[in-house]
Each structure stands twice: as C-alpha cells, then as structure tokens.
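For the sake of transparency, this paper describes our internal protein records without simplification. The tokens are whole numbers drawn from a learned vocabulary of local backbone shapes. One such record is reproduced below, unchanged from the form in which we store it.

. . .
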Amino acid sequence: MPRNPSTGIYSKPAGTTPSVGQIIDPAPWNQLTSDLGNEITNSLPRDGSAPMVAPLKAASGTASAPGFGFASNPQTGVYLKGSGLLGFTQNGVDVTFEKGMVYAAKAGDYTALASDDNAVHRFTASATLTLTAAATLGANWHYVVLADGGDVTIDPSGSETIDGASTLIVRNGYSATIYCTGSAFFTDKLIARLDAKADASAVGSFVIGGILSNNAGTPNTHIDIAAGSFRSGSAFVSSGSTLTKRLDASWAAGSGNGGLDTGTKAANTTYRIWPLRKTADGTADFVFSISTSSGGVTVPAGYTVVAPNGLDIGMILTDSAGNIIRFVQDGNYFRWNVSSFPNDLSTTANRTTSLLTCTLPTGRRVLGLFQTFISTNATGTDVIMEIADGLNANVTQFIENYGSNGSSRLRAVVEQFTNTSAQVNVGLILSPAPAANANTFQTVGWRDYQIPRIGA
C-alpha cells in the first residue's frame, strides 16, 4: 500500500503482522517489501547524490520557526507569510527586502500611491505632488522626486505634514527623497539644507533680475515682475518665473491677483514693489506699498518682506487718472514710455532758481534724467537755464542759448539728483528781453542708483 499523498503516512498491507507458528502468505509480504523499496527510492539522499523529481513541500512555518531551517540554527530560514508571500528570517527576526525601483516621467500633477513605494518620478513641468494618507501608504514607504522642468510642490493629505510643514517645494533642478512613518512624512533634508545655505547672512544684500514692466494686456493696472533673486541680510527669496500683480486690488497670493497692501489705488502716487517670502515654504510673491521702508509695509499673514539694503526693488507712478504711467526698465534705469515726455516746466518768463517738482518717484533720491529746450527769438536775446541738485542749489549745470540772427532753439539732455520729494532746482534767465517761444524742462526718466542690483 503506497504512502497517503495527503498526509504522507504509510500504512502496511493487511496480513503483514505475523504471529508465532503462522504460515506466511507471500502476497501481502511481497507488497510490503515492494512498498519499502519504492519509498527508499523516493527518499532524498542526505549526501545530495540525487535531485528532487517533484516540488518539495514544507510546513508554512513562522519567523521564529521557519518551514525551512538549519540544524545549527533552526530560527534562520524561509517561511510562508500571510497572503502567500515568501518570508525570510534571521535568528527569528523577519528580513525585509527592498522593492524593485520603478522610474516614470510625469508631465503634470500626480497623486502618489502605495504602489509607488521605491519609485523615482521625474517631473518635467511645474506640478503638485499629492501624497496619499500616511496610514494608507504605511511605515517605510519611500519615494524620490526629481524636479526637471519646474518646481514641484509636495502636498500631504489633509493636515499631515512633511518635515513639519504643510507643504514642501522641490525647486526646479533639485530632488528630494520622501519617507513615510505611517502618520507623517519626512525627507532627506536636502531641501532644508539648501534653503539654510541660501539664507546664510554672509552673502550680503543684492537684487538679480526682477525687472518691472507694464503688463501687455492691462498696462494701466497690472505690473509684470520678471524672474529674479533677492537677498536682504539672512533673508533670501527667488522667483523662477514672471509674476503679475495688479495695483487696483487688495493683495492676494499668486500671479494675476491683487498686489496692494492696504487702501485703494490713488492718483499721482509713488508705489514701491517689495519682494515677499512665504514662511512655510520659501516661495516668492510681491506687494505694492506707498511705504518708504519695509517696516511700514502691511505684510500679508505668513510672509516676510525681503528688502535688499532696506529698499524695495523698484517704484512705479500713477497719473492724474490713477493709471500706472508706462515705462521701460533696463537694470536700474527707468524711462518713460509715453508719446511725449512730461513737461514739468514750460515758460517764457524768468525764473529764480528754485525747487521744481518733477514727474519722478518720491520717497528717496534718484538721478533724474531730463531734456530741455531753450529758445530765443531776436538778435541779442540770451537764455540761460540753471539746473541744480535737489538738495544743494550750488551744485549746478548751465545750459546757454545765444540768439544772434533771429530765433533759435537749443535741446540739451542732462542728469541731476532729486530730493526725496522728486524735486530739482531749476532757474531761467532771459536777457535782455523774454523769449516769445516757450522754454521747457521735460522729465525723461531716472536712475535708481541705491538699489543693489547686480549687473545694473
């Protein structure tokens, strides 16, 4: 009788249990010896001289008593885990093996799943990576983010955090490895170290980029702020792309939204543009304010002002209708981009040298850029225009036009420093008689020489 295939138990054939004086029936005994021979043949030799010819079945076992173990250490071996998974144990402790790495490219927003454990995802554009709940992903789940085409914002589920913050931004060109504890997320701290390096105070204060311009579609109310980097002492913020902020609406985070810190847009007013750094993740935004110092800015909650050398990064002006005057910026040079430059003085009369308010920013001194036209209309009529520093009338430039053979008109381009009220000293002397043609003093633009702009 062969071995029971289900239990592995062998039962002798009937009639093979002899008694004294019994005549042996050869049939059952021949069956017994045949069975024993077959079982010996089917046994696995201990010296390994013969291989298995069918699958070897072992007990499921446990981590402390594996189905396959060793004589010298029975707690080390192989066992069957739940759900039919193979387990390995060493000295009674389960051994965990890394899952195979999976690479994939992502062109937009994505939600990381439990199946992404040990995945490497390369984001080729700006995106938001949403993390499934930590309890669902489980402890030891990990994932690599490569930002290769735009910033990637990592956003955990609900109120869960990553490195203790509600979100984390992986800047374009950088990477981060995310680890799940089962209740929260942490990274390899590379991003934090980069931010800490960026915030080192020894670098000083500077402005790189951040060029201002009237928005092409809505130039009267919107300002485009080009990508740039801004440092003030230990504070640093960088904007990787152009942001648009509007002057006719209260501040709200993000491009295309309001930029005014308080109040409403006013006419004939100088507004300053201040970089903002979001405390939670270091992202950039901008705010408009009439304040001449960073301490006077009404700062949105959750942000800090980054003021290089205590200054804004540029000033804009509104006209009598409250519209932003169109301009062109090149480094720290600003030039009015209008059909005709503002005539801040137009007269045929003598003028004692005195302060003249010009179409320029107020609140700090700038180097005003002007053009003048002085005229004569009769033989012997001389015209002298005196242009002086806005603080010191003795720091002068003279432009002279001598009439000798009828009328003449002289154009000159000059520079002069203003005071904080956008004023320079201007005088006009007509001798011996007033000229019939107007003498004009036009504002072309200004140089904001105090901003620490690199490459200006």
Observations:
- Helices lie at 26-42, 134-137, 190-198.
